[in-house]
Design goal:
The complex is a heterodimer.
Chain A (H helix, E strand, L loop, with lengths): L2 E8 L2 E8 L6 E6 L4 E7 L7 E7 L3 E7 L7 E2 L12 E3 L5 E3 L4 E7 L7 E6 L2 E5 L7 E2 L20 E7 L7 E6 L2 E5 L7 E2 L20 E6 L7 E5 L3 E4 L7 E2 L12 E3 L7 E3 L17 E4 L7 E3 L17 E3 L7 E4 L5 E4 L7 E4 L5 E9 L1
Antiparallel strand pairs in A: 1-2, 1-30, 2-3, 4-5, 5-6, 6-7, 8-9, 10-11, 11-12, 12-13, 14-15, 15-16, 16-17, 18-19, 19-20, 20-21, 22-23, 23-24, 24-25, 26-27, 27-28, 28-29
Chain B lengths: L8 E4 L2 H7 L5 E3 L7 H11 L19 E5 L2 E2 L11 H4 L5 E5 L5
Parallel strand pairs in B: 1-5
Antiparallel strand pairs in B: 1-2, 3-4, 3-5
Classes of the chains: A mainly beta, B alpha+beta.
Chain lengths: 371, 105
């Protein structure tokens, strides 16, 4: 029987939650790095013992931690995220120009193609790559140096590169997303990048056809159909059927199309999950009801999943990296809240139970399926 | 020149950095040449490379904004990094303290 390991990053430490394939009884281990903001914790899909963690602090800066025993013990690895050359300037909130300055790592993406390769998406937005297990980092600087770079501006949380998706068969093809610049694609391993934001509509910017400026919150894909991308934008749930060349809205009957995470079922490429949030000013679920919405038609038609989730007086948020699916035969779905709950479903989202209820605010949730 | 008995400067790190460096108490570092903020921190980072970037910014080598440097009941945070540290620190009678600033309420 296989196992399940859920990796949780919170505002005050990291936690490792383990269970068997049944996913009903859980062991909670942590906090690791107590007191530190753990923006993201993610395991290698090629080596389940290898786990990376982004440890950050307003006092003491950025540390990357690596575990080679599934999160039981950790060692700091490289934290030199120096931009390549002299970084340019980007837009600030008030329209002035401000030099790129590294703040933190938002997202770590261990490669599906090479066990020692890992990507880091950082604030101020840039993409770094390590080919030695996180010891040394080199910027894929053509992204930051894109012609549109001086037009990029931060979202409310900072100008962060938060999404890194690898193509399942072509290691040179990557998708990334930046708040609030938009989505970008490379087909040559990061030597050049194309904005892929055609069809996005954002009321927060004056030119709806702008090449950049869209506040993309999260993108996901299914490896069996990698040209189909699903996006949760600031407002709107979007879909692309051509690898990002164009997008169309699939918000359909959602009670709100604002939200942060989006995830695709492990075995059903047209089954998608989102967590609607009432608005960008509220940042809590509509009507105080925590509902995951599932579409089994690739969008537009959504059903509320409520069994086991609080349906009154719930005013938490679910952040962009805080939802994940496992690979078990009966697909598990997991998400964490700013109220410190981590919910798990072992039946594709039809029912939910809390694994833990009282962690610090959850920043990220990832899951490893152990064979 | 450092403490004649041990040849080292005493440094007190904040709790988070002691945990990262896997030390329980103050540390002692041998500082070649003149004892300044820069030379002491260079020696600390050489002895504990996992602390690179946590006290000083990796790109600029500037003190991180919420880190302070105290010694002999004085806040030395705003002194130029090559200013000699007090003789009591050099002699190992007083520690050089790296402190997380009060911030956040």
């Amino acid at each position: 029987m296989g196992g399940t390991r859920v990796l949780v990053g919170t505002r005050k430490g990291a936690f490792v939650l383990t269970s068997d394939e049944g996913r009903t009884d859980w062991k909670v281990d942590g906090p690791h790095f107590p007191g530190w903001e753990m923006y993201h914790v993610k395991g290698s899909p090629l080596n389940p013992d290898r786990v990376y963690a982004s440890q950050t602090s307003g006092w003491f800066g950025q540390v990357i931690q690596r575990s080679d025993d599934g999160g039981a013990s950790w060692e700091p690895v490289g934290n030199d995220f120096s931009y390549d050359g002299v970084p340019g300037e980007h837009q600030w909130y008030d329209g002035s120009l401000r030099p790129w300055a590294f703040t933190r790592v938002w997202h770590l993406e261990p490669s599906i193609h090479d066990a020692e390769t890992v990507y880091a998406g950082v604030e101020d937005a840039a993409l770094f790559k390590s080919t030695d297990g996180g010891v040394g980092w080199a910027e894929l600087s053509a992204l930051r140096e894109h012609d549109t770079g001086p037009q990029w501006q931060p979202g409310a949380g900072g100008m962060c590169l938060h999404t890194v998706l690898e193509h399942p068969t072509d290691p040179d093809r990557l998708y990334v997303a930046i708040s609030a610049a938009g989505a970008f694609r490379t087909s040559d391993g990061g030597k050049s990048w194309q904005p892929i934001n055609r069809g996005l509509r954002s009321g927060e910017i004056p030119d709806q056809d702008s090449e950049v400026g869209h506040c993309v919150h999260r993108i996901d894909l299914h490896p069996a159909n990698p040209d189909v991308l699903y996006m949760q934008k600031h407002w709107d749930v979007m879909r692309s059927d051509d690898g990002g060349d164009s997008w169309h809205e699939v918000s359909g009957n959602l009670p709100s199309d604002f939200g942060f995470p989006i995830a695709v079922h492990a075995h059903e490429p047209e089954t998608v999950y989102v967590v609607p949030i009432s608005s960008d000013s509220h940042h809590f679920p509509p009507d105080g009801k925590l509902r995951v919405y599932r579409s089994r038609s690739g969008g537009n038609e959504w059903e509320a999943l409520t069994t086991g989730l609080p349906q009154r007086d719930c005013y938490v948020n679910v952040l962009r990296d805080a939802m994940a699916v496992d690979q078990h035969e009966s697909c598990g779905v997991y998400f964490g809240t700013t109220g410190g709950q981590v919910y798990a479903s072992n039946d594709s989202g039809s029912s939910w139970t809390p694994i833990v209820r009282d962690l610090p605010a959850v920043l990220s949730v990832e899951v490893q399926t152990l064979r | 020149m450092t403490d004649a008995m041990t040849g080292s400067v005493r440094v007190i790190l904040p709790a988070h950095l002691r945990a990262m460096a896997k030390v329980d108490d103050e540390v002692r570092v041998v500082v070649p040449g003149e004892v300044t903020q820069r030379s002491v921190l260079d020696a600390v980072e050489a002895a504990f490379p996992m602390l690179l970037g946590t006290i000083r910014d990796r790109a600029t080598a500037q003190r991180r904004p919420f880190v302070r440097f105290f010694a002999c009941q004085e806040d030395l945070s705003h002194q130029p990094p090559d200013t000699p540290l007090p003789e009591q620190v050099v002699q190992g009678q007083e520690p050089f303290m790296v402190v997380g600033a009060m911030a956040g309420g």
